[in-house]
Amino acid sequence: MAELGGPKQPHNHHKTPHSRTIRIWLKRDSGQYWPSVYHTMPDSCSCMSFNPETRRLSMGMENGTISEFILSEDYNKMTPAQTYQAHQGRVTVVLFVLEMEWVLSTGQDKNFTWHCSESGTQLGLYRTTAWVSGLQFDVETRHAFVGDYSGQVTILKLELDSCSLVTTFKGHTGNVTALCWDPVQRVLFSGSSDHSIIMWDIGGCKGTAIELQGHNEKVQGLCYAPHSRQLISCSSDGGIVIWNMDVTRQETPEWLDSDSCQKCEQPFFWNFKQMWDSKKIGLRQHHCRKCGQAVCGKCSAKRSTIPLMGFEFEVRVCDSCHESITDEDRAPTATFHDSKHSIVYMHYEPTTGWLLTSGADKVVKLWDMTPVVS
Ligand SMILES: [Zn+2]
Ligand SMILES: [Zn+2]
């Protein structure tokens, strides 16, 4: 993965804590990127959605409004098109859906709303349980996937002016920070501050949910490369992981309950009766990540990666599982890269194979992903 060089910011020593500008960066003959448009907004921008076909830019604002612009063909001009008074408080996610002519948005007011992008009128509203940080939409079935700060993903079926709750996915122990939908395989990926990614296999219709463990910090973005069936994920420590999703992974087992080690039968520390009867010291309970058995530390001293269960990092396994895992089983199904900045936003463009990362350091980096995503 070669770094193409972050675009230079002309006035970076006059940074304001909240930027109110929209900049359109164009690649110049010199090979460098310079803004063609430098537009100041009445309030800070909190999120955006860009549709290349219509060149429609939808900006969510700190004050709850969504401002839309149409960019000129040469990207040298942007014209205001529509304003929506969508939320009371910061717009957290905005998503323009061309096929429906809908603008979906969520806000700090815990409302999920959708507007008609032609008339500008609000079509419907749904009250979410927590702040929403991830939003995806399936055009074919009109399902909206809404990921929130409580760690759950709510699936809503949208009608023209109403919606119904289909189901709720619960699996994360931290906020849902990113969502990514693959409409072909019908798979939803959710990333969380608990460092994990869950792949919810909706198309498989078997209720399979696979956990992917490859980050040491909170997951900040998810993108899917459909042609090569690779998932790109990034985290706040700058890590970028590229997952091969063309392999069949297994679900992690449920952790079993036992009052004694399921290998050596020594009692766990709360098992006073057996401790007294056998005059043995109570041990701490651990779980083997492969078989799920409750085991003591001595019977699970070894560590292994289990890539086909989503564990790209070494995890605790019991002695018998450690023996059963072959070198072939340990072949990684993901590659690991360092963006060298704390990523806050990421976007992948499948047509060019380029990845954009935007960092807490206010630097935008462009990466040529073709050597690793193809
Ligand atoms: Zn044991
Ligand atoms: Zn085991």
From TrEMBL:
WD repeat segments: 169-202, 212-246, 336-369
UniProt feature, compositional bias: Basic residues: 10-21
Annotated compartments: Early endosome
This protein's GO CC annotations: early endosome
Disordered: region residues: 1-21
GO molecular function list: zinc ion binding
Gene3D superfamilies: YVTN repeat-like/Quinoprotein amine dehydrogenase, Zinc/RING finger domain, C3HC4 (zinc finger)
Matches recorded under CDD domains: FYVE_WDFY1_like (cd15718)
Domain FYVE-type stretches: 255-326
Keywords: Endosome, Metal-binding, Repeat, WD repeat, Zinc, Zinc-finger
Biological process according to GO: positive regulation of fat cell differentiation
Pfam families: FYVE, WD40
Name of the protein in its database record: WD repeat and FYVE domain-containing protein 2 isoform X2
Organism: Salmo salar (Atlantic salmon)
